[in-house]
Amino acid sequence: MAPGRFNDTPPPSHWPSEIIYLTKPRLSARFPPSLTPLLLPSSSTTVTTFAPRPFKHPSHLTIKRVVDKSHPAFGQFGLFANKKIKDDELVIPYLGVLHVTLAPVDDDDATSTVATEEDEHSSSDYDISLLRMSASDPRNPFGADGEKGGRHISIGVDAAQMGNAARFINDYRGVRPSGPNSEFRMGRGEGGEARMEIWTLKGKGGVGKGEEILVSYGKAWWGARKG
């Protein structure tokens, strides 16, 4: 089966052939249907299914191989601005596979039979958290249940095998001493569905033409990769 056969649309320039290109997020085949409402518009009574609208690759962004030998991602790819991007502006949503991990309230409880994909995604460098919900939250369908104790919910977005250009955004460390120029934010798609997005930072001057989009991966990301 040819790589890229299941791309949503023809990918942008410099897209790796082994990665599936997405214009909208995909639910994991093992995503519990009972959790789908958590992704839908919170105030809507008409939207009952997860059906995000496609997002076209922004013309002001380019995927390029990093050629600066001092860059921590030298030889890999980065995402760059073709034109000035203003302060506090949406750069691009972060698309990938939406998956779920259900963690027992009691760490000693290993009796859960609910299918999750913790092992598949836990080691991915492209997996970011979208939503976390305590077992005590009344919206949690796997919540506290007597002696079973319930399950905490963690919904993530993994772009390791399929995603959009946002997967190439690098961390600012070792690249931009003054700090990141963009950040991850929880947002909503055109249909109101929950999604993770990258925005330029407010009051930091935006991103200039030719500059790389850079975020902070966060202490947890780096901490999990020490050693």
From TrEMBL:
It holds the Pfam family SET. This is SET domain-containing protein. It comes from Kwoniella newhampshirensis. InterPro entries: SET_dom, SET_dom_sf. Residues 59-218 form the SET domain. It comes from the Eukaryota.
